[in-house]
């Protein structure tokens, strides 16, 4: 008894120290995000010093620098939203399916958005297929179909969800290929979207996806404790008073909203939803109370950093951010795997 009493203060102190370290790390991550936001506005075909970016932001005067800064702000805002959405959705999907390879494409969201876009372009014309609203319905419907098929009137287990996602994605990909091969105009629309890029999106895109991202983030962040319980298994979670089915449904709904908004806005961007949760988990552990806030901050850091790199290495042109994220994120994930820290 005395030993247990003696160990209790030590355990509490260790937890407090760990929480302090993780809290300071989160502050550092926020500062890094601020720096990357500044670089995203400053770097481009015409570089702008960070000091001038701040001056133009505080006091726009209609000068060339102010015009350049104003034109890059919507792109940076879109990268902030999409990076946060993909990273948070990735960690939630990994937690729900208990699959370390889980990413936003696992629930069929990417394939659903692609199918919705090409069908809209084929029926209403290529211009209609370039809007956010052309991709959102298909992403949501595909995720709903995956959940219904995965549950089959019973409990939606992780294995069933993964298999249902693979089946639905295969059917939708076949539909996309059939339509794009038959209609060159639709193929052009699809090709400009599927590469995954922050460039060329109208400023109104930010306002279109903002409600989806905000609602999805709120839902996912509120599920931090239930996801921790769900990681113990459905039976253990139920014994703790958790309704596993409801948690899985809410988590899938929140992640789907985030994925649908991100994919509809900029196209399918790989690796952010897969790599960021793994990298974060390597130093926070599997506690979603820390995983989710860190992913919320570091997701935009990775995406915007990749976008900046894409502008620098191909001047005066640029590489799509979807092509750069793999090169930026892969080394971090490989390092985590080699150290044996990837897992749930």
UniProtKB/TrEMBL annotation:
GO biological-process terms attached to the record: siderophore-iron import into cell
Listed GO MF terms: transmembrane transporter activity
Main location: membrane
Pfam families: FecCD
Mode of membrane association: Multi-pass membrane protein
Localization, UniProt: Cell membrane
Membrane spanning residue stretches: 20-45, 76-93, 105-125, 131-149, 161-182, 202-224, 249-271, 291-309, 321-338
Cellular component, GO annotation: plasma membrane
InterPro entries referenced in this protein's UniProt entry, alphabetically: ABC_BtuC-like, ABC_transptr_permease_BtuC
Keywords attached to this entry: Cell membrane, Membrane, Transmembrane, Transmembrane helix, Transport
Entry similarity comment: Belongs to the binding-protein-dependent transport system permease family. FecCD subfamily.
PANTHER family for this protein: FE(3+) DICITRATE TRANSPORT SYSTEM PERMEASE PROTEIN FECC-RELATED, FERRIC ENTEROBACTIN TRANSPORT SYSTEM PERMEASE PROTEIN
Name this polypeptide is given: Iron ABC transporter permease
């Amino acid at each position: 008894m005395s030993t247990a009493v003696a160990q209790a203060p030590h355990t509490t102190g260790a937890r407090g120290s760990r929480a302090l370290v993780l809290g300071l790390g989160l502050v550092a991550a926020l500062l890094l995000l601020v720096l990357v936001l500044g670089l995203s506005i400053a770097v481009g075909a015409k570089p702008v010093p960070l000091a001038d970016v701040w001056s133009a932001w505080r006091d726009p005067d209609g000068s060339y620098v102010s015009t350049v800064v104003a034109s890059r702000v919507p792109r940076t805002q879109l990268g902030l939203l999409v990076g946060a959405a993909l990273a948070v959705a990735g960690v939630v999907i990994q937690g729900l399916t208990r699959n370390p390879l889980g990413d936003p494409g696992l629930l069929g969201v990417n394939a659903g958005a692609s199918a919705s876009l090409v069908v809209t372009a084929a029926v209403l014309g290529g211009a209609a297929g370039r809007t956010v609203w052309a991709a959102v319905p298909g992403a949501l419907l595909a995720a709903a179909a995956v959940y219904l098929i995965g549950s089959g009137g019973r409990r939606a287990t992780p294995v069933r969800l993964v298999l249902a996602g693979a089946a639905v994605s295969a059917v939708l990909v076949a539909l996309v290929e059939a339509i794009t091969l038959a209609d060159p105009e639709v193929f052009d629309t699809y090709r400009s979207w599927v590469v995954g890029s922050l460039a060329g999106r109208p400023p109104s895109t930010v306002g279109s996806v903002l409600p989806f991202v905000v609602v999805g983030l709120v839902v996912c962040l509120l599920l931090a404790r239930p996801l921790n319980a769900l990681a113990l298994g459905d039976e253990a979670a139920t014994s703790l008073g958790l309704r596993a089915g409801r948690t899985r449904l809410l988590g899938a709904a929140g992640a789907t909203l985030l994925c649908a908004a991100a994919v509809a806005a900029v196209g399918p961007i790989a690796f952010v939803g897969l790599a960021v949760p793994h990298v974060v988990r390597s130093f926070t552990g599997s506690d979603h109370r820390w995983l989710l806030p860190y992913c919320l901050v570091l997701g935009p850091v990775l995406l915007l950093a990749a976008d900046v790199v894409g502008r620098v290495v191909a001047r005066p042109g640029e590489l799509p951010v979807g092509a750069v994220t793999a090169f930026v994120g892969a080394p971090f994930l490989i390092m985590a795997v080699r150290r044996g820290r990837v897992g749930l």
